[in-house]
User: What shape does this take?
Amino acid sequence: MSRQHDDLMHQAPPDGGARLAIPFSLHGESGVVHVSVAPILDGVRAGFDILAGLPFAADETVGYPAMSARVDYDGMGYRTLMGWVQTIRTVRTTTGRPVDDDRCEVDLAPAFGDLDSPFFVSGSTPSVVDAPARNLNGADRLAWTADTFLTTLPLRSRREPIRRLASFRWGYVETADPDHAPTLLPTVVTGAPAWAASVDLLRSRFPTWTFDPA
Assistant: This one.
């Protein structure tokens, strides 16, 4: 993803979002993940107009969070191959009563959901973007939280364990009140406990892959 595209997706006032720099190491080389989470100011410039079949207009995404993360890494060749894994938790309520009790799932791109792969994105120093919006599904309130992990990428066999390299948590709250804008949750760096909490879900969803619990 180009730096220009990142800027278009995240034009925000100084106090409108969060930026993190998370160091990591892989194969004896150093790297940094640069994270941006900011409210969308223009749904078309954020790209919602090119997503086929959405039940809402691009301009209805204003105020929802857009996340991007890019990887700077000193290694070369096969060393640069990595993946992004994302798990999400959604809690919907109606008049204070839970509709979905702490629903957790592995987040996958819709077009690739049947490929039996846990990766949201993978490749050579891969960037990742996500922009959840308008997910109430008839509820009065939704709390949406994502744990996003940069991981190793198995190169020769699924027996090679997938390990966490760097990670962060982000999300938002939306309500059915049209006068109440979405609220972005704090974006924070996470560690091994966040990965460990997701491993059981990953193993149950993708039993042919190996996940390092540490």
